[in-house]
Specification:
Number of strands: 4
Strand order of the largest sheet: 1-2
Shape: elongated
Number of helices: 2
């Protein structure tokens, strides 16, 4: 693995964790967005979840493909929508209330979202630390030639 490979791997982690944090912030911001129960025209916000996958680089040798794979970072392969039922609240005066007086809110748990935010922040910090370590190693390697 070259020095620039480690830069790319850390950069992919930074990008993925930033997107994860953005999605978590979006979930928190929309947790009080109301919708009509059982109304496809006015549904409440649905929680989004990023799905990560490792990027693999196939290692070839003399034109022949080996069966070993080398890690090349991480990326978000898709963002899925949570399929849990919305939370119903009895608010008969609300403009989105149905005939029974219920309003649909996203089924978002603030504790879970805060754990996701802290986890994404820590993973981002770990990638920054790895990137800085790789940079320091590259600088020390350049100093050897002096």
């Amino acid at each position: 693995m070259g020095v620039f490979d480690s830069f790319a791997i850390s950069a992919s982690g930074l990008t993925a964790e930033k997107l994860r944090l953005d999605i978590t912030a979006n979930n928190i911001a929309n947790m009080h967005s109301a919708g009509r129960p059982n109304d496809p025209a006015n549904p409440p916000y649905s929680r989004k979840i990023p799905i990560f996958a490792q990027m693999l680089e196939q290692a070839g040798e003399n034109g022949a493909l080996r069966l070993r794979y080398k890690g090349a970072g991480v990326h978000v392969i898709r963002v899925v929508t949570d399929q849990n039922e919305p939370r119903l609240a009895y608010e008969p005066g609300h403009p989105f209330a149905d005939e029974n007086g219920y309003v649909a809110y996203p089924n978002i748990n603030i504790v879970n979202e805060m754990v996701n935010a802290i986890s994404a922040t820590r993973a981002y910090e770990a990638n920054v630390t790895a990137l800085n370590a790789a940079k320091d190693i590259a600088l020390k390697a350049l100093e050897i030639g002096r």
